[in-house]
Amino acid sequence: MCGNNMSAPLPAIVPAARKATAAVIFLHGLGDTGHGWAEAFAGIRIPHVKYICPHAPTMPVSLNMRMSMPSWFDIYGLSPDADEDETGIKRASENIKALIEQEVKNGIPSHRIILGGFSQGGALSLYTALTTQQKLAGVVALSCWLPLRKSFPQASSFSANKDMHVLQCHGDADPLVPFIFGSQTAEKMKSLINPANITFKSYRGLAHSACPEEITDIKRFIERQLPPISDE
Question: Which of 85, 78, 110, 112 is nearest to 96 (CA)?
Answer without folding.
Answer: 110
